[in-house]
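ESCALATION

Customer reports they have been waiting on this structure for their group meeting. Please prioritize. Original submission:
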Amino acid sequence: MRLRNLVAVGIHKKFMMNYFARKKQYVVIAGCLLLSFVMGSIHAFSILLEPIETKFYVSRTFSSFTYSLSLISITSAVYFGSSIYKKFTPTTIVLIVMTLSTLGTLISALSASIYFVWIGYGILFGFANGLGYGYTLQYSAIALPESKALMMGLVTASYGLGATIAPIFYRNTNMIGGFVNTMTSLTIIFFIITFFVFFLFRFSNLEFDLEKGLPLQIKNCNPISKYLLWGIYGCSISAGLMCFGHAAGIAKSFYISNEYIYIIPITMGFLNMAGGVLFSSLIKFFHYKNIILFLSMLTTFSLLILLLIPSKISVFLGLPLISISYGGIIAIFPSMINKLVGNLAGIKIYGFVFTAWGFFGLLMPLLAGKTFDISNSYSFIILIATILSIFPILIIYLKYKKLLI
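Update from on-call: job pushed to the front of the queue and completed.
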Protein backbone atom coordinates (compact mmCIF):
# COMPACT_ATOMS: atom_id res chain seq x y z
CA MET A 1 0.00 0.00 0.00
CA ARG A 2 2.79 2.39 0.96
CA LEU A 3 4.66 1.61 -2.27
CA ARG A 4 1.51 2.25 -4.24
CA ASN A 5 1.06 5.64 -2.53
CA LEU A 6 4.67 6.61 -3.26
CA VAL A 7 4.21 5.68 -6.93
CA ALA A 8 0.98 7.70 -7.06
CA VAL A 9 2.69 10.72 -5.49
CA GLY A 10 5.58 10.42 -7.93
CA ILE A 11 3.23 10.25 -10.91
CA HIS A 12 1.28 13.24 -9.56
CA LYS A 13 4.46 15.30 -9.11
CA LYS A 14 5.64 14.43 -12.61
CA PHE A 15 2.23 15.36 -14.02
CA MET A 16 2.26 18.70 -12.20
CA MET A 17 5.81 19.47 -13.33
CA ASN A 18 4.87 18.73 -16.96
CA TYR A 19 1.70 20.80 -16.56
CA PHE A 20 3.53 23.89 -15.30
CA ALA A 21 6.33 23.47 -17.84
CA ARG A 22 3.74 23.32 -20.62
CA LYS A 23 1.93 26.31 -19.15
CA LYS A 24 5.13 28.38 -19.25
CA GLN A 25 5.71 27.32 -22.84
CA TYR A 26 2.28 28.62 -23.81
CA VAL A 27 2.97 31.89 -22.01
CA VAL A 28 6.06 32.31 -24.20
CA ILE A 29 4.01 31.54 -27.33
CA ALA A 30 1.42 34.13 -26.27
CA GLY A 31 4.15 36.74 -25.80
CA CYS A 32 5.70 35.91 -29.17
CA LEU A 33 2.38 36.18 -30.98
CA LEU A 34 1.55 39.48 -29.31
CA LEU A 35 4.94 41.05 -30.08
CA SER A 36 4.82 39.82 -33.67
CA PHE A 37 1.29 41.20 -34.02
CA VAL A 38 2.19 44.76 -33.07
CA MET A 39 5.31 44.70 -35.26
CA GLY A 40 3.23 43.62 -38.26
CA SER A 41 1.71 47.10 -38.48
CA ILE A 42 4.68 48.10 -40.63
CA HIS A 43 3.16 46.30 -43.63
CA ALA A 44 0.19 48.65 -43.69
CA PHE A 45 2.58 51.45 -44.62
CA SER A 46 0.86 52.19 -47.95
CA ILE A 47 -1.91 53.95 -45.97
CA LEU A 48 0.77 56.41 -44.74
CA LEU A 49 2.10 57.32 -48.20
CA GLU A 50 -0.20 60.27 -48.88
CA PRO A 51 -0.21 61.59 -45.27
CA ILE A 52 3.60 61.74 -45.43
CA GLU A 53 3.52 63.46 -48.82
CA THR A 54 0.96 65.96 -47.53
CA LYS A 55 2.81 66.81 -44.32
CA PHE A 56 6.35 67.05 -45.70
CA TYR A 57 5.58 68.11 -49.32
CA VAL A 58 7.62 65.28 -50.82
CA SER A 59 7.29 63.01 -53.86
CA ARG A 60 6.11 59.39 -53.91
CA THR A 61 9.78 58.33 -54.23
CA PHE A 62 10.71 60.10 -50.99
CA SER A 63 7.69 58.89 -49.04
CA SER A 64 8.12 55.26 -50.18
CA PHE A 65 11.83 55.38 -49.28
CA THR A 66 10.70 55.45 -45.63
CA TYR A 67 9.28 51.97 -46.07
CA SER A 68 12.30 50.75 -48.04
CA LEU A 69 14.65 52.02 -45.34
CA SER A 70 12.62 50.30 -42.63
CA LEU A 71 12.89 47.00 -44.52
CA ILE A 72 16.67 47.40 -44.71
CA SER A 73 16.75 47.99 -40.95
CA ILE A 74 14.58 44.92 -40.35
CA THR A 75 16.98 42.89 -42.48
CA SER A 76 20.04 44.07 -40.59
CA ALA A 77 18.40 43.14 -37.27
CA VAL A 78 17.57 39.63 -38.49
CA TYR A 79 21.01 39.22 -40.09
CA PHE A 80 22.85 40.07 -36.87
CA GLY A 81 20.25 38.27 -34.78
CA SER A 82 22.41 35.19 -34.15
CA SER A 83 24.94 37.42 -32.37
CA ILE A 84 22.39 39.53 -30.51
CA TYR A 85 19.99 36.84 -29.29
CA LYS A 86 22.54 34.81 -27.35
CA LYS A 87 23.96 37.86 -25.52
CA PHE A 88 20.71 38.99 -23.90
CA THR A 89 17.84 37.45 -21.97
CA PRO A 90 14.33 37.40 -23.48
CA THR A 91 13.19 40.24 -21.20
CA THR A 92 16.19 42.37 -22.18
CA ILE A 93 15.43 41.82 -25.86
CA VAL A 94 11.86 43.04 -25.29
CA LEU A 95 13.14 46.14 -23.47
CA ILE A 96 15.43 46.92 -26.41
CA VAL A 97 12.53 46.48 -28.83
CA MET A 98 10.34 48.70 -26.64
CA THR A 99 12.94 51.47 -26.44
CA LEU A 100 13.83 51.56 -30.13
CA SER A 101 10.26 51.25 -31.44
CA THR A 102 8.74 53.92 -29.19
CA LEU A 103 11.70 56.26 -29.70
CA GLY A 104 11.48 55.80 -33.47
CA THR A 105 7.76 56.55 -33.76
CA LEU A 106 8.02 59.46 -31.29
CA ILE A 107 10.82 61.06 -33.35
CA SER A 108 8.64 60.63 -36.44
CA ALA A 109 5.69 62.29 -34.70
CA LEU A 110 7.76 65.29 -33.62
CA SER A 111 9.80 65.71 -36.80
CA ALA A 112 9.49 68.67 -39.13
CA SER A 113 11.47 67.00 -41.91
CA ILE A 114 11.16 63.76 -43.84
CA TYR A 115 14.78 63.00 -42.98
CA PHE A 116 13.92 62.60 -39.30
CA VAL A 117 11.08 60.26 -40.28
CA TRP A 118 13.67 58.17 -42.12
CA ILE A 119 15.78 58.07 -38.93
CA GLY A 120 12.87 57.44 -36.55
CA TYR A 121 10.54 55.16 -38.48
CA GLY A 122 12.95 53.87 -41.10
CA ILE A 123 16.01 53.09 -38.97
CA LEU A 124 15.04 52.87 -35.29
CA PHE A 125 11.56 51.37 -35.59
CA GLY A 126 12.69 49.22 -38.52
CA PHE A 127 15.54 47.72 -36.49
CA ALA A 128 13.25 47.14 -33.48
CA ASN A 129 10.75 45.49 -35.80
CA GLY A 130 13.32 43.07 -37.23
CA LEU A 131 14.76 42.31 -33.80
CA GLY A 132 11.32 41.53 -32.37
CA TYR A 133 10.12 39.52 -35.37
CA GLY A 134 13.30 37.47 -35.75
CA TYR A 135 13.49 36.74 -32.03
CA THR A 136 9.87 35.62 -31.72
CA LEU A 137 10.32 33.27 -34.67
CA GLN A 138 13.18 31.45 -32.94
CA TYR A 139 11.86 31.72 -29.37
CA SER A 140 8.50 30.19 -30.33
CA ALA A 141 10.31 27.25 -32.00
CA ILE A 142 12.38 26.72 -28.85
CA ALA A 143 9.29 26.88 -26.62
CA LEU A 144 7.56 24.05 -28.53
CA PRO A 145 10.30 22.22 -30.45
CA GLU A 146 7.99 19.34 -31.37
CA SER A 147 5.80 21.81 -33.32
CA LYS A 148 8.42 24.31 -34.42
CA ALA A 149 7.18 24.63 -38.02
CA LEU A 150 3.64 25.40 -36.87
CA MET A 151 4.84 27.84 -34.20
CA MET A 152 6.98 29.74 -36.73
CA GLY A 153 4.00 29.80 -39.06
CA LEU A 154 1.75 31.18 -36.32
CA VAL A 155 4.24 33.93 -35.45
CA THR A 156 4.40 34.91 -39.12
CA ALA A 157 0.60 34.79 -39.31
CA SER A 158 0.34 37.03 -36.26
CA TYR A 159 2.66 39.47 -38.03
CA GLY A 160 0.18 39.38 -40.91
CA LEU A 161 -2.74 39.92 -38.53
CA GLY A 162 -1.06 43.14 -37.38
CA ALA A 163 -0.91 44.24 -41.01
CA THR A 164 -4.63 43.43 -41.28
CA ILE A 165 -5.76 45.54 -38.31
CA ALA A 166 -3.35 48.45 -38.84
CA PRO A 167 -5.07 49.97 -41.94
CA ILE A 168 -8.28 50.47 -39.92
CA PHE A 169 -6.28 52.07 -37.14
CA TYR A 170 -4.26 54.26 -39.55
CA ARG A 171 -7.37 55.41 -41.39
CA ASN A 172 -8.98 56.66 -38.18
CA THR A 173 -5.86 58.29 -36.73
CA ASN A 174 -5.07 59.97 -40.06
CA MET A 175 -8.57 61.42 -40.22
CA ILE A 176 -8.33 62.83 -36.70
CA GLY A 177 -4.83 64.29 -36.68
CA GLY A 178 -2.91 63.17 -39.75
CA PHE A 179 0.52 61.58 -39.72
CA VAL A 180 1.50 63.16 -36.37
CA ASN A 181 -1.48 61.62 -34.56
CA THR A 182 -0.81 58.21 -36.14
CA MET A 183 2.82 58.16 -34.97
CA THR A 184 1.89 59.41 -31.49
CA SER A 185 -0.78 56.74 -31.15
CA LEU A 186 1.66 54.06 -32.32
CA THR A 187 4.15 55.17 -29.68
CA ILE A 188 1.59 54.64 -26.92
CA ILE A 189 0.44 51.28 -28.29
CA PHE A 190 3.99 49.95 -28.76
CA PHE A 191 4.86 50.90 -25.19
CA ILE A 192 1.79 49.24 -23.66
CA ILE A 193 2.01 45.99 -25.63
CA THR A 194 5.78 45.50 -25.34
CA PHE A 195 5.52 46.21 -21.61
CA PHE A 196 2.93 43.44 -21.33
CA VAL A 197 5.12 41.05 -23.37
CA PHE A 198 7.99 41.84 -21.00
CA PHE A 199 5.95 40.50 -18.07
CA LEU A 200 4.88 37.41 -20.02
CA PHE A 201 8.49 36.51 -20.77
CA ARG A 202 9.47 37.33 -17.19
CA PHE A 203 6.75 35.05 -15.84
CA SER A 204 7.67 32.13 -18.10
CA ASN A 205 11.38 32.31 -17.25
CA LEU A 206 12.05 30.02 -20.24
CA GLU A 207 15.64 30.24 -21.46
CA PHE A 208 16.48 31.00 -25.07
CA ASP A 209 18.52 27.85 -25.70
CA LEU A 210 19.89 27.71 -29.24
CA GLU A 211 21.29 24.22 -28.73
CA LYS A 212 17.82 22.68 -28.64
CA GLY A 213 16.95 20.72 -31.72
CA LEU A 214 19.50 18.69 -33.68
CA PRO A 215 20.09 19.13 -37.40
CA LEU A 216 18.14 16.73 -39.56
CA GLN A 217 20.30 15.12 -42.23
CA ILE A 218 18.48 14.99 -45.54
CA LYS A 219 19.71 12.05 -47.59
CA ASN A 220 19.55 11.28 -51.30
CA CYS A 221 19.06 14.86 -52.43
CA ASN A 222 21.07 17.67 -53.94
CA PRO A 223 22.51 20.07 -51.33
CA ILE A 224 20.98 23.55 -51.55
CA SER A 225 23.36 26.45 -52.03
CA LYS A 226 22.56 29.26 -49.62
CA TYR A 227 23.04 31.67 -52.51
CA LEU A 228 20.36 29.94 -54.57
CA LEU A 229 18.15 29.91 -51.48
CA TRP A 230 18.75 33.67 -51.33
CA GLY A 231 17.65 34.03 -54.94
CA ILE A 232 14.57 31.83 -54.58
CA TYR A 233 13.46 33.62 -51.43
CA GLY A 234 14.11 37.13 -52.73
CA CYS A 235 12.41 36.64 -56.09
CA SER A 236 9.46 34.89 -54.46
CA ILE A 237 8.66 37.74 -52.08
CA SER A 238 9.66 40.73 -54.24
CA ALA A 239 6.13 41.22 -55.59
CA GLY A 240 4.64 41.05 -52.10
CA LEU A 241 7.05 43.65 -50.72
CA MET A 242 6.27 46.02 -53.58
CA CYS A 243 2.51 45.54 -53.21
CA PHE A 244 2.47 45.98 -49.44
CA GLY A 245 4.41 49.23 -49.81
CA HIS A 246 2.15 50.61 -52.55
CA ALA A 247 -1.19 48.79 -52.15
CA ALA A 248 -3.17 52.00 -51.66
CA GLY A 249 -1.32 53.70 -54.52
CA ILE A 250 -1.88 50.75 -56.89
CA ALA A 251 -5.57 50.63 -55.97
CA LYS A 252 -5.95 54.36 -56.65
CA SER A 253 -4.14 54.06 -60.00
CA PHE A 254 -6.73 51.41 -60.96
CA TYR A 255 -9.50 53.91 -60.11
CA ILE A 256 -10.59 52.42 -56.79
CA SER A 257 -12.38 55.21 -54.90
CA ASN A 258 -10.94 56.59 -51.66
CA GLU A 259 -13.91 55.14 -49.79
CA TYR A 260 -12.78 51.58 -50.57
CA ILE A 261 -9.00 51.91 -50.91
CA TYR A 262 -8.28 51.07 -47.27
CA ILE A 263 -10.10 47.74 -47.71
CA ILE A 264 -7.27 46.55 -49.99
CA PRO A 265 -4.49 46.62 -47.32
CA ILE A 266 -6.87 45.07 -44.77
CA THR A 267 -7.66 42.19 -47.12
CA MET A 268 -4.00 41.76 -48.00
CA GLY A 269 -2.98 41.65 -44.36
CA PHE A 270 -5.65 39.08 -43.49
CA LEU A 271 -4.75 36.82 -46.43
CA ASN A 272 -1.05 37.21 -45.65
CA MET A 273 -1.86 35.83 -42.20
CA ALA A 274 -4.09 33.09 -43.62
CA GLY A 275 -1.40 32.06 -46.11
CA GLY A 276 1.14 31.71 -43.32
CA VAL A 277 -1.11 29.44 -41.22
CA LEU A 278 -2.33 27.41 -44.19
CA PHE A 279 1.01 26.59 -45.77
CA SER A 280 2.73 26.03 -42.42
CA SER A 281 0.15 23.30 -41.87
CA LEU A 282 0.51 21.85 -45.37
CA ILE A 283 4.22 21.07 -44.96
CA LYS A 284 3.13 17.91 -43.13
CA PHE A 285 1.66 16.65 -46.40
CA PHE A 286 3.75 18.25 -49.17
CA HIS A 287 7.46 18.89 -49.76
CA TYR A 288 8.67 22.45 -49.18
CA LYS A 289 9.88 22.49 -52.77
CA ASN A 290 6.39 21.83 -54.15
CA ILE A 291 4.80 24.50 -51.97
CA ILE A 292 7.35 27.11 -53.06
CA LEU A 293 6.81 26.12 -56.68
CA PHE A 294 3.03 26.48 -56.34
CA LEU A 295 3.25 29.84 -54.55
CA SER A 296 5.64 31.26 -57.16
CA MET A 297 3.24 30.22 -59.90
CA LEU A 298 0.36 31.83 -57.98
CA THR A 299 2.30 35.09 -57.73
CA THR A 300 3.13 35.06 -61.44
CA PHE A 301 -0.51 34.41 -62.34
CA SER A 302 -1.70 37.25 -60.08
CA LEU A 303 0.79 39.75 -61.53
CA LEU A 304 -0.19 38.82 -65.07
CA ILE A 305 -3.82 39.58 -64.19
CA LEU A 306 -2.79 43.06 -62.99
CA LEU A 307 -0.57 43.62 -66.02
CA LEU A 308 -2.77 42.29 -68.83
CA ILE A 309 -6.28 42.96 -67.46
CA PRO A 310 -6.00 46.31 -65.63
CA SER A 311 -9.33 46.81 -63.88
CA LYS A 312 -10.89 47.19 -60.46
CA ILE A 313 -11.64 43.46 -60.38
CA SER A 314 -7.99 42.59 -61.10
CA VAL A 315 -6.91 44.70 -58.09
CA PHE A 316 -9.34 42.96 -55.74
CA LEU A 317 -8.23 39.58 -57.12
CA GLY A 318 -4.51 40.02 -57.87
CA LEU A 319 -3.31 41.83 -54.74
CA PRO A 320 -4.97 39.39 -52.28
CA LEU A 321 -3.55 36.37 -54.14
CA ILE A 322 -0.07 37.91 -54.02
CA SER A 323 -0.56 38.38 -50.27
CA ILE A 324 -1.44 34.70 -49.79
CA SER A 325 1.69 33.68 -51.67
CA TYR A 326 3.88 36.12 -49.74
CA GLY A 327 2.49 34.92 -46.40
CA GLY A 328 3.14 31.30 -47.32
CA ILE A 329 6.72 31.91 -48.46
CA ILE A 330 7.85 33.90 -45.42
CA ALA A 331 6.17 31.36 -43.11
CA ILE A 332 7.75 28.17 -44.47
CA PHE A 333 11.29 29.36 -45.21
CA PRO A 334 12.44 29.66 -41.56
CA SER A 335 11.18 26.17 -40.72
CA MET A 336 12.66 24.71 -43.92
CA ILE A 337 16.10 26.10 -43.10
CA ASN A 338 15.70 25.02 -39.49
CA LYS A 339 14.86 21.50 -40.64
CA LEU A 340 17.90 21.34 -42.90
CA VAL A 341 20.58 22.55 -40.49
CA GLY A 342 19.08 22.84 -36.99
CA ASN A 343 18.44 25.83 -34.70
CA LEU A 344 21.95 27.21 -34.22
CA ALA A 345 23.14 27.12 -37.83
CA GLY A 346 19.59 27.82 -38.99
CA ILE A 347 19.56 31.29 -37.42
CA LYS A 348 22.79 32.22 -39.20
CA ILE A 349 21.74 30.86 -42.58
CA TYR A 350 18.26 32.34 -42.29
CA GLY A 351 19.89 35.65 -41.40
CA PHE A 352 21.87 35.48 -44.64
CA VAL A 353 18.87 34.43 -46.75
CA PHE A 354 16.78 37.16 -45.13
CA THR A 355 19.09 39.80 -46.60
CA ALA A 356 17.25 39.08 -49.87
CA TRP A 357 14.14 40.40 -48.13
CA GLY A 358 16.01 43.60 -47.32
CA PHE A 359 17.51 43.94 -50.79
CA PHE A 360 14.19 43.57 -52.59
CA GLY A 361 12.46 45.49 -49.83
CA LEU A 362 14.70 48.45 -50.64
CA LEU A 363 14.62 48.00 -54.41
CA MET A 364 10.99 47.21 -55.22
CA PRO A 365 9.04 49.88 -53.23
CA LEU A 366 11.62 52.54 -54.15
CA LEU A 367 11.54 51.59 -57.84
CA ALA A 368 7.74 51.52 -57.72
CA GLY A 369 7.68 55.04 -56.31
CA LYS A 370 10.16 56.30 -58.91
CA THR A 371 8.32 54.76 -61.88
CA PHE A 372 5.03 56.17 -60.57
CA ASP A 373 6.54 59.66 -60.34
CA ILE A 374 7.76 59.35 -63.95
CA SER A 375 4.78 57.68 -65.64
CA ASN A 376 1.94 58.04 -63.13
CA SER A 377 1.51 54.26 -63.49
CA TYR A 378 2.65 51.03 -61.81
CA SER A 379 2.72 48.95 -65.01
CA PHE A 380 6.52 48.86 -65.36
CA ILE A 381 7.18 47.70 -61.81
CA ILE A 382 4.45 45.05 -62.12
CA LEU A 383 6.25 43.76 -65.23
CA ILE A 384 9.58 43.64 -63.33
CA ALA A 385 7.91 41.77 -60.44
CA THR A 386 6.40 39.28 -62.91
CA ILE A 387 9.81 38.50 -64.41
CA LEU A 388 11.33 38.06 -60.94
CA SER A 389 8.55 35.70 -59.84
CA ILE A 390 9.37 33.34 -62.71
CA PHE A 391 12.95 32.75 -61.53
CA PRO A 392 12.08 30.52 -58.52
CA ILE A 393 10.00 28.33 -60.84
CA LEU A 394 12.91 27.91 -63.24
CA ILE A 395 15.50 27.29 -60.47
CA ILE A 396 13.43 24.64 -58.71
CA TYR A 397 12.23 22.93 -61.90
CA LEU A 398 15.62 22.85 -63.64
CA LYS A 399 18.02 22.28 -60.74
CA TYR A 400 16.13 20.96 -57.69
CA LYS A 401 13.33 18.93 -59.23
CA LYS A 402 14.31 15.85 -57.15
CA LEU A 403 14.94 17.71 -53.91
CA LEU A 404 13.30 15.86 -50.99
CA ILE A 405 12.31 18.70 -48.70
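Sent to customer with the following note: The first helix runs from residue 2 to 39.
Escalation resolved.
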